[in-house]
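Contributing new records

If you add data, match the layout below exactly. Sequence lines come first and carry their own label; structure lines follow with theirs. Keep one chain per record. Anything else will be rejected by the validation script.
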Amino acid sequence: QVQLVESGGGLVQAGGSLRLSCAASERTFSGYTAGWFRQAPGKEREFIASINWSGSSTTYADSVKGRFTISRDNTKNTVYLKMNSLKPEDTAVYYCNAVLGPIKKWGQGTQVTVSS
């Protein structure tokens, strides 16, 4: 089954940018809807963005719309999250998610910290 590994997190100043990557272990990932979620300390995990299997359809949370862009490269079994104009409130652990019917997979998460 598909396993997901996130990378690209780190410490950035407010207004800066980061690109997160989520690499899948199998080519069957190209059939999955993929998404990004985040969880800040003391808060519930929240939806950030999703992308369909072909990349033709994307959805964003209002809090990141216009600042974050989700994309995927199925030739590399990878989904990306480009984050611009980062704010301190974007600080969280970011998780990659892949869904295909009843199958739902999560990565281990990558920390993003935005300093003011």
